Amino acid sequence: MSRSTKKGPFVDTSLLEKIEVMNRGSEKKVIKTWSRRSTVVPEMVGHTLAVHNGKKFIPVYITENMVGQKLGEFAPTRFFKGHTTKAEKAAQMAAASSPGPGAGGGPGGGGAAPAGGGAPAKGGA
């Protein structure tokens, strides 16, 4: 449900004050904000806001098309990396189950013991 029109858009007061001070002095610098719930108002157009996504600040340059939307819409908190296919899953399982190079019983393999270390051999010096 949207906010009542008689109340007007919500903008964090400290953020709005910073924007107004920058507009009066015609400055352009990045403003860090944690207020993802603030609505983009026309006074913000042309400024860059660093919106926190829970981990880091995402720089967002405000344009006219963004007016009326929330700041949090432009700083995603989750990143979808895609589904794995059956072929990728099979390759991962095969790589996990097979021993790496040099760990087999072949020439120069030496078995599962680490090279050049471990317990001394029995019977000898």
Description of the structure:
- This protein is an alpha+beta fold.
- Helix content is 19%, strand content 10%.
- It has two helices and three strands, in the order H-E-E-E-H.
- It has helices at residues 13-24, 86-97, and strands at residues 31-33, 48-52, 57-61.
- A three-stranded mixed β-sheet has the order 1-2-3, with helices on one face.
- The model has no long low-confidence stretch (mean pLDDT 85).
How many strands, which pairing sense, and closed or not: the largest β-sheet?
A: 3 strands, mixed
Radius of gyration: 29 Å
| Oligomeric category | single chain
Q: Any low-confidence stretches, pLDDT <50, length ≥5?
A: none
- Helix fraction bin: 10-25%
The overall pLDDT average reads: 85
- List how many beta strands DSSP finds: 3
Gist?
By secondary structure, the chain is of the alpha+beta class. It has helices spanning 13-24, 86-97, and strands spanning 31-33, 48-52, 57-61. A three-stranded mixed beta sheet has the order 1-2-3, with helices on one face.
Reconstruct the topology from this structure.
Elements: H1 13-24, E1 31-33, E2 48-52, E3 57-61, H2 86-97
Parallel strand pairs: 1-2
Antiparallel strand pairs: 2-3
Q: Any descriptors?
A:
125 residues, single chain, three-stranded mixed beta sheet, alpha+beta, 2 helices
